[in-house]
Automatic annotation (TrEMBL):
EC number annotated for this UniProt entry: 2.1.1.37
Keyword Oxidoreductase: no
Any one of the GO BP annotations: methylation
Enzymatic class: transferase
Family as reported in the entry's similarity comment: Belongs to the class I-like SAM-binding methyltransferase superfamily. C5-methyltransferase family.
Region Disordered: start-end pairs: 216-238
Pfam families assigned to the protein according to its UniProt record, in alphabetical order: DNA_methylase (PF00145)
Name of the protein described by the UniProt record: DNA (cytosine-5-)-methyltransferase
Keyword line: Methyltransferase, Restriction system, S-adenosyl-L-methionine, Transferase
Gene3D superfamilies assigned: DNA Methylase, subunit A, domain 2 (3.90.120.10), Vaccinia Virus protein VP39 (3.40.50.150)
Native organism: Streptomyces purpureus
Keyword S-adenosyl-L-methionine among UniProt keywords: yes
Molecular function in Gene Ontology: DNA (cytosine-5-)-methyltransferase activity; DNA binding
């Protein structure tokens, strides 16, 4: 961990995946802004000293929080935006508003660096060229230089094929020193390697056979929408991928299988074991002692929406290195 503490304003902080990673890279939050009560409870339970502001980003005004001015880093792990052509639903419009609000907040706070994490298409797709150009023009006008890259969590030790679009806006005195993090160069664990031990915790005799079947990286874990029902591991195609690994992706379990649970590897999804919230947390790279608050669905959604801490840490170390020279 860096010896010098850099200051951080974390918005749409969620369950803290981004903040955990950045903390390990040497950043100390001056405030974390989050409107979900369960996520705020999670942040407070794990880091009582953190200044958690339970409020909507659209209502946050730095004038009321002057200690946020001139922070080293403004970081935003925002809800997933849609392209202009497909942003017909109200929650998609809300995601765009939050992205725009982050740009305006950069103008108000004037951090040395701003970090936005979102969908890969925000960085690469022509369908997002309008919002990308808005971000670039506004931030360049403020004296920032915009960098963009797609990072896959599996390049940083996370056992999951999960791609992130990352935008980094550096003030010109920092921009020439910023370098994207280098992948670890080693293959991450498979799902079986990551979860085999936990699958055996209640005496399931087939845990080793199951782990051998789950011999690949996980599909991207998704948190789902508050407007949907209970927790599951994603759309139908993703559920089929989980079934091929011996997992029932249609729900999230309360416990791992016990000694009486059968092993029917080629059976129907309902015959397969489900993953628990702590197991999904492992797949997301969260610390084993990170406590989640709320009911099962709320806890799963917090984890599913998070930026895996190891990826945030890798980006954070690159930012810390660039910010170290003044």
């Amino acid at each position: 961990m860096s010896q010098a503490r850099l200051t951080l304003l974390d918005v749409c902080a969620g369950a803290g995946g981004q903040a955990i990673g950045l903390e390990s890279a040497g950043f100390a939050p001056v405030a974390l802004v989050e409107n979900d009560a369960h996520a705020c409870a999670t942040l407070r339970a794990n880091r009582p000293a953190w200044n958690v502001l339970e409020m909507d980003l659209l209502e946050f005004d730095p004038v009321d929080h002057p200690y946020t001015y001139d922070v080293d880093l403004l970081a935003a792990g925002l809800p997933r935006v849609k392209s202009a052509a497909s942003a017909a639903r109200s929650q998609d419009d809300e995601a765009r508003k939050l992205l725009e609000a982050t740009v305006w907040l950069t103008a108000g706070v004037r951090p040395r660096v701003a970090l936005i994490e979102n969908v890969p298409d925000l960085v690469t797709s022509e369908a997002f060229s309008d919002i990308r150009e808005f971000i670039r023009l506004e931030l360049e006008h403020l004296g920032y230089r915009l960098h963009g890259r797609v990072l896959n969590a599996n390049e940083f030790g996370v056992p999951q094929d999960r791609r992130h679009g990352v935008l980094v806006a550096c003030r010109h005195d920092v921009a020439d020193r910023f370098r994207w993090p280098t992948p670890t160069g080693t293959a991450p664990q498979t799902v079986g390697e990551a979860l085999g031990r936990s699958m055996s915790e209640r005496g399931w005799p087939h845990a080793t056979a199951w782990a051998a079947r789950a011999d690949r990286q996980a599909p991207a874990v998704v948190g789902g929408s508050k407007n949907r029902g209970g927790a599951d591991l994603g759309p139908s195609g993703t559920k089929k991928a989980w079934a091929r690994m011996g997992v029932n992706g249609g729900t999230i379990g309360d416990e791992v299988p016990d000694a009486s649970f059968p092993w029917v590897p080629d059976g129907e999804p309902r015959d397969l074991p489900t993953l628990t919230v702590p197991q999904v947390s492992i797949l997301q790279g969260f610390p084993s002692d990170w406590r989640l608050c709320g009911g099962k669905t709320a806890r799963y959604r917090q984890i599913g929406h998070a930026w895996p801490p190891p990826v945030a840490a890798a980006v954070g170390r690159s930012l810390a290195a660039a910010l170290a020279e003044r």
